[in-house]
């Protein structure tokens, strides 16, 4: 997703899938992802830009989401 001026653009694998006005609504604040009524997985989500503070190196939000734990969950079929 990119917000430049009053334009919001959304991308999947660097391909633009939608563009709409409304970027001016998002001058500052938090970033979140949400879905309704479906199962979704978000991967490699980054927030960057000249006004975004550098939070340092990437880290896992949830240490339980480490690769070994994820593979164990997949193998168990959960």
Structural write-up:
The chain has a domain at 1-26. Helix content is 13%, strand content 21%. The protein has one helix and three strands; from the N terminus they run E-E-E-H. A three-stranded antiparallel beta sheet has the order 1-2-3, with no helix packed on it. The longest helix has 10 residues, at 67-76. The two termini are 30 Å apart. The relative contact order is 0.10.
State the gist of this model.
The protein is an alpha+beta fold and 78 residues long. It has a domain at 1-26. It has one helix at 67-76; strands at residues 2-4, 7-12, 15-21.
For the termini, the CA-CA separation is 30 Å
**What's the assembly state of these chains?**
single chain
The SSE string, one letter per element, is: EEEH
Low-confidence stretches: none
Instruction: State the total count of DSSP E strands.
Output: 3
Count of DSSP-assigned helices = 1
The fraction of residues in strands falls at: 15-25%
Structural class: alpha+beta
Let me know the largest β-sheet.
3 strands, antiparallel
Helicity level = 10-25%
| Principal-axes shape call | elongated
Instruction: Give the radius of gyration.
Output: 16 Å
Strand order in space, largest sheet: 1-2-3
Please state the average pLDDT score.
Answer: 76
């Amino acid at each position: 997703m990119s917000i430049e001026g009053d334009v919001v653009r959304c991308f999947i694998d660097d391909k633009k899938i939608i563009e709409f006005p409304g970027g001016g609504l998002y001058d500052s604040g938090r970033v979140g992802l949400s879905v309704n009524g479906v199962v979704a997985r978000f991967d490699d989500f980054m927030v960057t830009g000249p006004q975004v503070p550098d939070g340092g190196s990437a880290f896992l939000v949830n240490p339980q989401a480490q690769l070994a734990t994820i593979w164990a969950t997949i193998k168990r079929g959960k």
